[in-house]
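Running co-folding for flavin-adenine dinucleotide.
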Amino acid sequence: MKNNTITMTVNNEIHTLPIKPGETLAALLRERLHLTGTKIGCEEAECGACTVLVNDEPVLSCIYPAGRADGKTIVTIEGLAKYVDHVMKLHPLQEAFVEHGAVQCGFCIPGQIMTAFALLKRNPNPSQDELRDALKDTLCRCAGYPMIEKAILAAAHTLRTGDPLPLPEIYESIHKRKLVGRKHLRPDAVDKVTGKAIFTDDLQFDNMLYGKVRRAMVPHAILKKLDISKAKAVEGVLAVLTAEDIPGEQNHGVIISDWPALIGIDQQVRYVGDAIAIIAAETPEIAAYAARLIEAEFEPLPVISSPVQAMEEGQPQLHEKGNLLKHIKVRKGDVLKGFEEADQVFDHTFHTQITDHAFMEPECSIAVPTQEGRMEVYVGSQIPYEDRRQIARVMGWEESRVRVIGQKMGGGFGGKEDIAGQIHAVLLANVTGRPVKLLYDRHESLIAHPKRHATQIRVRIGVKNNGRITAAETELFGDTGAYASLGEKVMERATTHSAGPYDIPHVRNDCFAVYTNNPPAGAFRGFGVTQSAFAIESMMDMIAHQLGMDPVELRRMNILHLGSVTNTGQALVESVGLTECLEKLDAEMRKTNPEPFKACIDPEEPNLVRAWGIGCAYKNTGLGGGAPDFANADIELFDDGKVEIRSSSAELGQGLVAVMQMIVSEELSILPENVRVLVMDTDLSPDGGPTTASRQTYITGNACRFAAQTLRQNIVNFLSKKFEVEPQKITLKDGFAYFENKKLSFNEIAKQMKALGEEPRVLYKYEAPETQPLGTGGSMHFAYSYSVQAAEVEVNKLTGEVRVLKVISANDLGMAINPLGLQGQIEGGVMMGLGHCLTEEFIVEDGHVISDQLARYRIPGIKLTPEITSIIIEHPTADGPYGAKGVGEISSIPTTPAITNAIFHAVGVRIDKTPVDQEQILKAMGNQLD
Amino acid sequence: MYQWQEYRQPKSLAEAIEDLSNAPVPAVPIAGGTDLLLDMRQGRHSNVHTLIDLTNIPEMNTIEIQGESLFIGACVSINRIINDPLVQRNAQALIEACDLIAGPQVRNIATLGGNVAHALPAADGTIALLALSATANVAFPGGVRTMQFQELFLGPGKTSIDKQTELIVGFSIPLAKPGQASAFKRIMRPQGVALPILNCAVWVEREGNRINASRIAVGPGGPRPFRATKAENSISGQYFNDDNISKATEVLLEQGSFRTSPRRATSEYRKSILPGLFQGTFKKAWSRAVVE
Ligand SMILES: Cc1cc2nc3c(=O)[nH]c(=O)nc-3n(C[C@H](O)[C@H](O)[C@H](O)COP(=O)(O)OP(=O)(O)OC[C@H]3O[C@@H](n4cnc5c(N)ncnc54)[C@H](O)[C@@H]3O)c2cc1C
Ligand code: FES
Ligand code: FES
C-alpha cells in the first residue's frame, strides 16, 4: 500500500506532511519542522548526535526513513524542557548537564541527553556499567565523558527522589578572586541543552541554494580534460564553476598561498581532495547528482606517500620550490661534546600516524550576497579575519567587502583553521546572486581537511650512568601532505619540543617538513608536540629501564626548573611548575600502588597484566618565535547598564566566551549576566587573532581585562570630574558606583556619559610580550604550560588487547580562571590523547584515503573512559591574566607515552609506532618467549 | 537522485510478497535499514525505486514457542531479543552476540533477519544462530518453506533466497533441554574498520563430565559463516578436559580458513588468538550446561 502523507506527533504536536522521496526522519525534523536541535554528525549511524525517541525508544534519525514515522510519537531535544507560565523549566537532565560542566562545544549534547533520557525512562537507577552501555555509541569529541556520566547520575537521583540536583564539587583556584577562579556556568550552556543553540547548518535563508564540490579523487595527476556540460544541463542546477571562473588569485593558504581553490586544465592535482569543479543547485540531491555527471580526465603521476620518499632523489616535485616545505634547525651547545661526555648513547626511531580532528560538527559555510553588494559568510571558523583575507584574495575584492560571521562551532581542535568551503560558497553565491550553503558530509570532511602530521622521529640521547642527560639529537620528518597549511609552524613546535621538557646542555634538532600526496596536514591540538612527546618520553623510559632507574627518578634529575635554559636558548625565570607536577603525581600514583612500574597479574584472570607508566611534557602558550601576538577587545557600556565585550576570537567549544565574561565582570564588578560577549564577527568584533597555540585565554583574556580596566578607569574619571570627588573615593560594586552618599547605577552612568559627549566604550589592543625567532637564542615564548600524566593499563596476554584503567593528569597552567571549563579541557585532553594512542588511525594508502567514514576512523567512546584524576598546579606567569597560561593542548600531550610506557612495564613490549597495535604486542610477546 | 522514491509498509506477509513482485523496480525489502541504507549511501548498493518495509508484518515480529522450537521473527529487533526471557532461557549465545552489536539506538531498529540476510561471514547474530542449529522459514509467492540455516549463504553478501520474490520470515531454534547451553564471545580491535577480528559461538550438551554433543561456529572462518564440524566430531562423546579441548582446537585451526583481512587482522594473529577465544567460549557454555 502506498502512503502519500505522514502523520506523527512530535513533542506533543500532531503534524501531517506529504511524504518525500528518500527523506530521513532527521531531515524531516530539521528541514521541515525546523527542529534543528537534532544534529547530524555522520549520517552513518556511528555518532549518535541525531538520536530522538520514537515511541519512547531511542533511535538514530539519520537512518530512520521518515515514512516509517507515520503514526508514531517522536520526542526531540526541543521537547524536554517544560514551560510553566511561559517560563522555561529545564528537565533535570538538562539542568544537570549545565551544572556539571558536561556541555562543551555542545554539538553532541542533544544526542547525549536524548539517549540518557531514554535510559532513565527504562532504568531510573542505572549503574555505571549500564549507563556506559547505553551511551556507548553516542560520541563526544570534546570527550567530557566523566562529566556527562556524573550529570546523568545526578539527574537520575533527582528524578527518582525529587531531591534537588546534586551539584559537583568544583576545584577553586588558589589565586581566586571574586569571580575568576571559581565555578562559573557557560553562558551558552542552556541553549546547548535545549537544542536552541544554532550552528551553521541550522541556518536557512530564503532562496538558498546548495553547493557541492567535485573532487579529483586521484592523488597525483595532471587534469587534462573537464566536461561540465551534462552537469549544467540538469534541471535545478544554477551554476557549475571551474578554475577559469576564479576572479582573483587562484591560491589560498593560511601562511603560504599554495593551495588552489580549484584545479585548472593542465594543472597538477596534489591530493584526492583537490577541487576541480563546484556546483550550486536548488537541492542538495540535485547538486550531488550533477557533481557525479562531471567528466574529468587525468594523466596520472607517480604518488609520493611519505616524507622520507619525498626527499629521495628522482622523486616528482609537488611544488615549484620542490618537496621540502622547510628545514627547521635547533642548536644548543655542542652535541659532539655532549655525546663524548656520555657514558651511554641511546638511539631509536619512532613513528606516529596521521589523525583526524573528527570534530562532531562537519564543516559548513553559507555565503549570502547582500543588497549593498557585499558578501556575508556564516561559518564556524577558528580564524574569522584570516577567512576574510583569503576569501577576498581569491575573489579579487577589498577585504571590507566580505563579512565573516562566525557561528557556534561543534569542535575545531585545530581542524577549522584552514579554508574549507568558505571560498567555494562565496564563488557560487557571487555568480548566482543567491545564498549558497556548502555543507560537508562526514565523508567529505574526512577526505578534505588538513590532518595531524604523521611524523618519523629519530632520537639519540647521551646519558651519564647516574642518569644525567648530556646530549640530545633528534631528526624529524613531518608529512605535511599536499599543501603547507600551518605545517611549517606545527613542525617547528614539534622540533623545538623534541628533546622534551628537559634541561640538556647540548642539543641538536633537525626537522624536515615535507610535501607528499597525502591530505594536507596542519594544526591539531598539541601542534606537533603530541608527536615529539611520544618519541622523547618513550626514549626516557628506555633509558631508565637500561640504567635500572625508576622512570620518575630519571625525570626528576633532568626536568626543566626555574633557571633552566631550554634547547632554544630561553632562560626560564618564572612559572615552571613541572617539578611540582611530577612530585604530586608521583605521590598520588604511589598512594594506590607503591610499586607502580612492576607488572601485576590479576589473580582472578591471570591473562590480564597491569602496570603504570608516565610521560612529561611542556607546551608554549601563544604564537611565539617573534610573531607579533595580539588581540583587540572592544568594550561598551550600554544605556541598560549592560556591558558588551567584543573580539573576533573563536569559541570552538573550549569555553572562551565564559572566560571573557568572567574577566569583564570581575574587572567592572558587575554581575556576569550583565556582560554580553560577542565573538567572531569581522564587522562587529575587532581582530582577536587566530584561535590556536592555546593562546586565547592569555591573549584575548588580557585584552578583555585591560579593556575592562580602562573602561572602569574612564567611568571613575568621569564621575570624579562631574561630581568633583576624588577618584579613590569612588567604588564600583555590583553594577553601581558608590561615592560620598551617592549610589549611581551603570545605566545612569552610561546615559550621563553620553549626555556629556563621552563614549562609554574602549577599544583595547593587547600586545603580548615580545618573543624571539628560533635560532636567535632569546625567549621564543612568553610562557609554557607543563604536564605530567600517569596511566595504568591492563594488557590481555592472550590477545594483546590494551585497556586504560586510570589516568592521573597533573598540569601547571598558571591559574585556573574557569575551573569548570578547565575540567572539560583536562578530561577531554586525556581522552583525545588516549584516542591518539589506541584507537585513531587515519589510513591513507598510495594517496587514497581508506578512513573515509567515521566507521573507519574510531574515536574513543564513553566505554574507553578511564578513571581520571586531575591535579591542578598554579605557578602564575607574570603577564598572564591573573597568572594564567594555556591549557587547551598540554592536557592531551603526555597521554600517549604514559600509556605506551605502561604497556612496556606490563608486558615488556616497547611500542615505537602509534597507534598501539594489539597484534604487534602479541607477536612481540611471543618473540620474548622464543 | 534519491535513495528511494517510494516507501511501502505492507501489513501482512502476503502483501509484502505481493509488493516485492509487483512494486516498481528496483524493489528491495528493508528491515532496520542499518545495513541497507548505509550500503546505499556509501555506494555499495545502488538506489532503488521501492523500499518495502517489513517491520509491520506480524509473523516477522513474534517470538514464541512453536512445538519443540523457539521461533524468532526476522524483524524482531536486536534489543527485543536481548530482553526476551524465552531467548534468554534457550539461546544464551544469541543473547551474548546481540549484546555486542552496536549501541541501543541501532539495536532498537536493527533486526536479526537483516543481520542474517546481509550474509557476512562474521555477523554476530548469524554466527550465534549457526551454533544454535537454527532453521530459516522463507516465504515465497506460493507459501513458506523451511531451510537449513547454512543453506542460506552462498558467499560474502550473497544469500540463496530469490531477492525478487522471497523473504525470510524467521528462525527456529531447538528448545534447550537440561544439560544443553551455549555461549558467544568475540575479539575486536579498537582502530580501523568496525568488524570483528574473530567471533565464536559454542553450543554443548553435557552429561556429567562428558561432552555428548557440541556445535561450534566461528566467524570469519571462510567466505560463508563457518561451522567447525570436524572439531565438533572430534570432541563429541569425549570427556571434558584440557587435552581433548586442545585437540579440538587443533582440528578447528585445521578446518577453518583464517585468512588475512587487510587492516583488520593477519592470518597469523587470527590463528594465535583463536585457541584462547574458542576455549574461553567453550568453557563458558560448558559451565552453563551443568544440570543442577
Ligand atoms: C554502528 C553499527 C554497529 C554495528 N555493529 C555490529 C556488530 O557489532 N555486529 C554485527 O553483527 N552487526 C553490526 N552492525 C550491523 C547491523 O546492525 C546488523 O547487520 C543488522 O542486524 C542488520 O539488520 P537490519 O534490520 O538493519 O537490516 P537491513 O539493513 O534492513 O537489511 C539488510 C539486508 O537484508 C535484507 N533483508 C532484511 N530483512 C530481510 C528479510 N526478512 N528477508 C529477506 N531479506 C531481508 C535487506 O534487503 C538488506 O539487503 C552494526 C551496524 C551499525 C550501524
Ligand atoms: S548517527 Fe546519525 S548523524 Fe551520526
Ligand atoms: S560537547 Fe560533545 S562533541 Fe563537543
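Result summary
Chain A touches chain B through 56 residues (CB under 8 Å).
Residues 5-79 of chain A form a domain with the Ubiquitin-like (UB roll) fold (CATH 3.10.20.30).
Job closed.
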